């Protein structure tokens, strides 16, 4: 295990590193949810607002609340014009600061594997939902190689360095998501896999973005220069590069949804 922890304190860096991936998967996730308009939404772990902005522009919500443990990420989120009316606050996914039956839809976009006790997080979502409300999430397939920077992580560990991991990677398994939702008393539980593709203008563009990545940036900064050169050379060879120098590859997420009985 690494003693470097994953921290989400820089909204702009997160936007480049993961926000764009989150929105690519989020678009497919929203299509799959097919939510009704004028719903009361809660975004658990809203971070810098990458997904929150999308639900506001696509889902015609009546009310949007977001909670996240990082005050710095929320500062970035509040700068998004689409979130001017959203109510964003610091909070813990395992102890949501809301009354029972307060929302119609509660989502965890790329969050559940960061929750130390995922079952508590799902139970909290179910608690704050009104009868008939929907609890849903999507998470990168950490075990199946679906994480967008899986090749980078493997290359770093291959050089003998540790890469910080989320506390609950098992929660990204599709069968675990199914079990968590059912154990929380949710009904009509469904799961699906979401595959998305992203392009980087060049290797230099890719490298600039990963240097700011919360899960790898600190590790990269601490590497010996010779190892950094080895890593870059390996990635230049292994990443799918087009004739114009651009890099394009896919990532896979698992999604789940279920309803509160009633």
Provide the β-strand percentage band: 15-25%
Question: In what order do the strands lie side by side in the largest sheet?
Answer: 3-2-1-4-5-7-6
Instruction: Tell me which oligomeric state these chains represent.
Output: single chain
The low-confidence runs, each spanning 5 or more residues with pLDDT under 50, are: 1-7
> How would the global form be characterised?
globular
The SS-based structural class is alpha/beta
Radius of gyration: 18 Å
Euclidean distance between termini CA atoms: 44 Å
Order of helices and strands: HEHEHEEHEHHEHHHE
Please name the CATH topology of one domain.
Rossmann fold
CATH architecture of one domain: 3-Layer(aba) Sandwich
Mean pLDDT: 93
Query: Under the CATH scheme, which class of one domain?
Result: Alpha Beta
> Roughly how much helix do the residues carry, as a percent range?
25-40%
| The CATH homologous superfamily of one domain | Vaccinia Virus protein VP39
